[in-house]
């Protein structure tokens, strides 16, 4: 509050001083012009000079404001840098969650985590799994998504982007990894809906997950910047080429994960 008052007084004082200086030049110059000591052209020049100087002086107020803001921000930064962490430095890799409850500040009444207790032993790998959107956005379509969808997950952004594209009823669709951020169940549901909605449209699908291209009329396989194979899914599998190798690799990865 004190800083704001100082900035206000400083800015107002500079603006008042620049305005008074112009008024003084005009009055004094007009008096000299009447007496014949100064020509009208000289008076005009002095007025223009005074306006230029006055605007430059007024700019000092904004410079002072920016400087004060930078000083306040830098103090906060140095305070954070000087803080000593309460975490021990000689950690052995053990992590323990004991009855953890969590809610986002924007929705304090909705708990995302409810009494989570979990212990990770040093060197172990622990996975957290669950259905897509578990614990998120109970308000459904009334959810506030934030500026540029900042409060949306990657999968939610993809779903909304696909829905917006289809609502435009385009004749041509370009889908670049359109379902890459979705889990298997959500991808199946979205892909099934898209297959029916894409009928009658020209669609170019770019994907690494080959499950999304099985229904394509033509699959073009690119390797080293060139199309090395093209055909339907079944035709490419029968060729036992690059596409078949990609399918086998993904199937092998899926089996390994299971």
TrEMBL record:
One GO biological process term: oligopeptide export from mitochondrion
Main location: membrane
Example of a GO MF term: ATP binding
Membrane topology: Multi-pass membrane protein
InterPro entries assigned to the protein according to its UniProt record, in alphabetical order: AAA+_ATPase, ABC1_TM_dom, ABC1_TM_sf, ABC_transporter-like_ATP-bd, ABC_transporter-like_CS, P-loop_NTPase, Type_1_exporter
Domain named ABC transmembrane type-1: residues: 1-69
Segments traversing the membrane: 12-34, 46-66
Subcellular location: Membrane
SMART domains found in the cross-reference section: AAA (SM00382)
GO cellular component: mitochondrial inner membrane
Domain ABC transporter: 14-249
Keywords on record: ATP-binding, Membrane, Nucleotide-binding, Transmembrane, Transmembrane helix
Presence of keyword rRNA-binding: no
Entry protein name: ABC transporter B family member 25
Gene source species: Senna tora
């Amino acid at each position: 509050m004190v800083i704001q008052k100082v900035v206000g007084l400083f800015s107002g004082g500079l603006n008042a001083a620049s305005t008074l200086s112009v008024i003084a030049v005009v009055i004094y110059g007009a008096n000299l012009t009447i007496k014949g000591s100064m020509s009208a052209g000289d008076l005009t020049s002095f007025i223009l000079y005074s306006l230029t100087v006055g605007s430059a002086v007024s700019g000092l107020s904004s410079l002072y404001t920016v400087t004060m803001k930078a000083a306040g921000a830098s103090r906060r930064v140095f305070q954070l840098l000087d803080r000593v962490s309460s975490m021990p430095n000689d950690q052995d890799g053990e992590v323990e969650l004991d009855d953890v409850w969590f809610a986002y500040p924007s929705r304090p009444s909705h708990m995302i985590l409810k009494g989570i207790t979990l212990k990770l032993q040093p060197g172990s790998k622990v996975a957290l799994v669950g259905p897509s959107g578990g614990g998120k956005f109970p308000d459904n379509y009334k959810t506030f998504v934030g500026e540029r969808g900042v409060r949306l997950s990657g999968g939610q952004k993809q779903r909304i982007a696909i829905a917006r594209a289809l609502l435009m009823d385009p004749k041509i669709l370009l889908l670049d990894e359109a379902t890459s951020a979705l889990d298997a169940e959500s991808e199946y549901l979205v892909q099934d809906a898209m297959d029916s909605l894409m009928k009658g449209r020209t669609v170019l699908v770019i994907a690494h997950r080959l499950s999304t291209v099985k229904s394509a009329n033509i699959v073009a396989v690119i390797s080293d910047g060139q199309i090395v194979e093209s055909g339907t899914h079944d035709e490419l599998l029968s060729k036992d080429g690059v596409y078949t190798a990609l399918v086998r690799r993904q199937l092998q990865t899926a089996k390994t994960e299971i």
